[in-house]
C-alpha cells in the first residue's frame, strides 16, 4: 500500500539533498532526511488523529447538550463502549491469526497445493458477502450476543489474512527456497528461516487490513447486541440525537485510523532489513 | 538577434533535385537545466545541410541528445534560435512543429495499444487526412521499410520482432512526409546483425527520399557508416570536430577526437567504402517454380558455381550451389533465412562480416526495396582495402558551419577576444532567462522520476 | 425459503435491480471522478503521495461510520447512500489510475510528444488507454467492495437488497426473518458475481489486443 510511496519519497529526498552539498555532509543529511521521510507519513497520520480527537472533545465540551445526550455521552459510558469495541476487535483478530496463518502455510505446502486456487476463489466470493448480512445471519443462528458478533467478525476477517499469507509465501523466489534446501536445510527450517521472514511484509499488511476491517465491522455488532461504539450511531439515528450519532461515527473512524496507524508502525519496524 | 544572424551564413537551400529535406540551423543555442552548474548545451551554433545525414556522437552526458531534442523543441532552448528551412521555429507552437518533424527513438517508441497501421497513421490523422489517404500511405510506408502490408498492417507492436518494431518506428516518423527526421539512438535496442540490416535499409530509404536526418548514436562505427557529416561533441555540447567521416578518421582535429575514434582507425577506413563503390559480379538468376535442371544448365553455361533465386519482386530468397541444384527437382519459393545479404550502401566492413559469418566467401548485394543487384566476393573487398590504404585524404571544401560561443569555448581559446565580449552580454541575459526555462524542464524530470519509481 | 422467494420475487427482483443500478451508477461516477483526479495529480510526486495517502486512509474509515456522519447533515434517503457508495468506489480506482498513469514508460510519452501530440491528446490517446487495464482492475475491486457497502447503506433507507437484511433483523424471531436476511446476503453475492463477469467482459471489449496480458 502506501509503504511503496513512502520508499519512493525517501529516494527522492536523498537525491535532492545530495545535489549541491559536499559529499560527506550530504551523506549524513540525506540519511537523516531519509529516516524522516520514511516516518513523515506516519507522524502526519498520528497528528491528524490526535487533532481530530481534540476537535471532537472541544466540540462536545462546548456544545449545548440535552439530558439524554449528556447521559449517553458520559465519559464513563464512552470508555465502556470503546473498550467493548476494542475487545471485539482484538479478540477476533487473535482468533483470526491463530486460524489463518497456519492454514495459509498449510495450503502453500506441497500436499495441499492443489487447494490454493479453489480456496482463493471461494475467499474472493466470500469477500463480496455484505458484512452486515453475515453479522445478522450468524446472530439468527447462534443468538444475539457478544459471541455471535465475535464469530461473524472472525469469519469476515479471516479472508485477508489467509490470502496475504498465501500470496506472501507464494511470491518468495523459488530459487531462494531451492538454495536453502541445497544448503541442507530441512523443509521446516526453510519455512521458518527463509520463506516466512520474506513473506512478513505482505502478511503484516494483510493483518493490518484485517484489523481495519474488524474495527469497522465491529460497529455493526450493535445490531445484534454485541456491544461496541456502533450503539452510539444506532441510538443517534433512532432517537434523532445528532450529537450522539456524529460522536459515534467519528469515534469509530478515529479508532480505525488509530489501529491502522499502529499496524503501519509495526510494519515499518518489522520489515526485514534489506528488503 | 540581428547581430547573430549576420555572424552565421544562411542555410543552404535545397538546390539539387531530389532533395526533400530541409536545412536546419541552430543559432547560438544554450540550454541550462535548473539546479545544474554548467549548461547542458553551451552557445552552440551549427548548420545542418538539407538532404544529408548528420550523426551526433560523443560521451554520454555530453549534451548530444539535448541538442537533438531542441531541434523539435521537446526540450526548449534557454537561449538562441532554431531555424528550419529558413523559418525561425523558436516561438511557434511546439506540437505543430513536431507534427512536421519525424521522430524516432530506441525500439521505435510504438504505442503498444495501437496496431501497426494506427501507429503509422497517427500523425496524418492529426493533420486531418482522410481515411483512404491514410490507409494508402500506411501501405506505401510499410513497403518502403520492407514489411509486407497485408501481413503486418493489423499486428500489434508486441507481435513484432525488435527490428520490425524499429522499422515501423521509422515508417511512423516518415508518415506525413516530413522534411526532417530526428533519430535518438534508433538502433540501440536490436541485435548487431539486425542493426546492420536496419542501417542498410535506412541508407536505401535515404537514397530514395533524401530527407535531412539528424541521428544521435553512441556507436562511432555507426556514425561512420551512416553519416554524411559527423559532429563529435564534448561536455556542454562543445563541438570538437564537425566533418566528413573520411576527414575525421584521416585527420582528427585534436586528442579528444583521436581518443574517441579509438584504436583501429585503419580498419575503420574500411567502413568508408561502400559496396556500391566497388565492382559487383553478375549472377545466374532463377525463379521459384522453374525446373532445377534448367537453372543448372544456365549456371554451367555461365561457368558460375551458384544460382540466385529471386521472388516476384526480384528479392533474393535462395542461393543454390551446383550440387544443391543437382539434387533438386523444382525450385521452391521458401526463403532461406540464413542468406548472406548486404545492402548496396553497406560498408565493405559489413560485407566482410557477412561473408565471414556465412562462410560462403561471397555475399548477395541488394539495392532499393531489397532488390537483387549482384554478388560481392572476398577478393573484391581485399582489392578495395589496398586501394583505400594508399588513397590520400581529400580536403573537404563545403564543410557546414559548427562552432561554440559558450563559456567553455571562451576559457579554452583566449584568442577570440571579440567573441568574449558577446559572451559577457549573453551570460547576464542568461541568468535572467533561466527562471523562465524551468517550463521546459518536465520532460527530463518526468524521465528521471519514472526511473526512480521503476527502481522501487 | 422457496415460498418466501416465490411470494416476493417481484419485490426481490426490483430491489436487486435497484441495488445493482445504484452500484453501477456510483461506479461510473467514481471512475470518472477518480480518473480526472488521477490525471491532474500523477505528474507531481507530492500530489501523488497525498492522493495515495487520502485513498489509503479513506479506505480505513468504516462505511457504517461514514453513513452515520452523512445522515446528520443530509437526512435519510438516497443521497447519503449514493455519496457513501461513490466515495468508497472512487478510492481503489483512484489509486490504480495513479499507478497506471505513472507506470507508463517515459519513452512512450516522449515519443507521443515527439510526433506532435499535445499534452492533452497524449493523455487521452496514449496514457489513459495504456493505463486502462490497471484502472479497470481497480473498478473490479471497487465493485466487489461497494456491493457490500451498498447493503450497509440501506440503513439510511437507501435503495437495494440491504433492506431485506435490516427488515429481517427488525423482525428477528418472527416469521421469515431468516429467509429475508438470507435473500439479502445471497442476492448481494450473486449481483457481485454478475457485475464482476460483466466487468471482465468489458475488459475483453475495451482492452486492445496489443496490451492484453
Mind explaining what this structure looks like?
The complex is a heterotrimer of chains A (275), B (456) and C (213). Chain A is an all-alpha fold and 275 residues long. Chain A has one domain: MetI-like (MetI-like fold). Chain A contains eleven helices and no strands. Chain A has helices spanning 2-20, 23-62, 67-72, 75-108, 116-127, 131-142, 146-170, 174-182, 187-218, 230-238, 242-270. In chain A, helix 8 (174-182) runs antiparallel to helix 9 (187-218), helix 9 (187-218) runs antiparallel to helix 11 and helix 10 runs antiparallel to helix 11. Chain B is built from 19 helices and 17 strands. In chain B, the strands form four sheets. Chain B has a six-stranded mixed beta sheet with strand order 6-7-8-3-9-10, sandwiched between helices. In chain B, a hairpin with a 5-residue loop joins strand 12 and strand 13 (316-321). In chain B, helix 4 (116-126) packs across helix 5, helix 4 packs parallel to helix 7 (162-174) and helix 5 packs across helix 7. Chain B starts with a helix and ends with a helix. Residues 1-16 and 408-456 of chain B have low confidence and may be disordered. Chain C is mostly helical. Chain C has a domain at 14-161: MetI-like (MetI-like fold). In chain C, helix 4 (78-102) packs antiparallel against helix 6 (119-153). Chain C is elongated and about 70 Å long. The model of chain C has no long low-confidence stretch (mean pLDDT 88). Classes of the chains: A mainly alpha (275), B alpha/beta (456), C mainly alpha (213).
